[in-house]
Amino acid sequence: MSRDLEDQLRQALRPVDPDEEFAQRVMRRIESERAPPRRSQTRRLQWWHVAVAASAVLTLIVVHDWQTRREQQGLEARRQLIEALRLTGEKLDIAYQVVNEDDA
Amino acid sequence: MKILSLKSLLALLSLACVLCQSAGAADGRLDIPDFRALEDKASEYVTVTLDAPLLKLATGFLDAQKAEDRAVKEMVEGLTGVYVKSFTFDSDFVYAKADVDRVRKQLTTPGWQRLVEVRSRKEQTDLDVYISMNQGKANGLAIIASEPRELTIVNIVGPVDLEKLHRLEGRLGVPKLQIDVQAGAAKGVD
């Protein structure tokens, strides 16, 4: 009985040459396990679109902010310019009045 | 009070034009202290610092449809700086006379010519108007006005055109100077 068991074990565990396509099947399986599933590729593309859209919106906000600040700066400069010319005129007026009184 | 007649002033200005051709010329710019300490003591103050880029920006916001803005734009054309420090106080002589004299001292350098000097002992008021000339052309205007409760320093840098200033008559509070620049004569105000 033990001899039969040994024979059976030898038969079961004898080395068997794989066929020619064995290596190809193994490589195909390895490649398929490496490739990301389609579902995560789609998710990456969605994130990229979101990033581009967010960048565009952020750029628009920054440009709008810059334009608003520029306008405020320009209006303030205009106000200061007019105030400066008004003060200049006020002092020249004093000088003129004094000179005119002297001429009179 | 020491006052020059307007005719004398214009004659002096013409003479100054000739003299300054050979003399060293000022660039028309004053070094005005920032007077930060005075800002805390003043009841009101005005600080204007407009260099060439800011002047250009300011003129871009002038309304071409308004005659007043058009006149300002003409006046400002070519200017490279407008600087003003003006303070009003609630008590007398909060500012140091030495600070004002330090600015006046700059106007003794070649190129600067005094047009008007007003001194009032009674009112303790001083007013000086200077013009800077370079090769017969004005390149700066300076006004220093000191009163017991007010100090004003104005410096306009660039080709200050009296004729354009003349065109600002009646606008922005600028008086009707009625200075006939071409004829060199002065008229009185009625």
Task: Explain what the structure shows.
- The complex is a heterodimer of chains A (about 100) and B (about 190).
- With about 100 residues, chain A is an all-alpha fold.
- In chain A, about 90% of the residues lie in helices and about 0% in strands.
- Chain A is rod-shaped.
- Residues about 20-25 and about 175-190 of chain B have low confidence and may be disordered.
- Chain B has helices spanning about 5-20, 35-40, 50-60, 65-75, 95-105, 160-165; strands spanning about 45-50, 80-90, 110-120, 125-135, 135-145, 150-155, 180, 185.
- In chain B, about 30% of the residues lie in helices and about 30% in strands.
- With about 190 residues, chain B is of the alpha+beta class.
- A 6-stranded antiparallel β-sheet of chain B has the order 1-2-6-5-4-3, sandwiched between helices. A two-stranded antiparallel ribbon of chain B has the order 7-8.
- Chain B is built from 6 helices and 8 strands, in the order ααβααβαββββαββ.
- The two termini of chain B are about 25 Å apart.
- The interface of A and B includes residues 81, 90 and 92 of A.
Which helices and strands occur, and which strands form pairs?
The complex is a heterodimer of chains A (104) and B (190).
Chain A: H1 2-13, H2 22-34, H3 38-103
Chain B: H1 6-20, H2 36-41, E1 44-51, H3 52-60, H4 67-76, E2 81-88, H5 97-106, E3 112-120, E4 125-134, E5 137-147, E6 150-157, H6 162-167, E7 179-180, E8 185-186
Antiparallel strand pairs in B: 1-2, 2-6, 3-4, 4-5, 5-6, 7-8
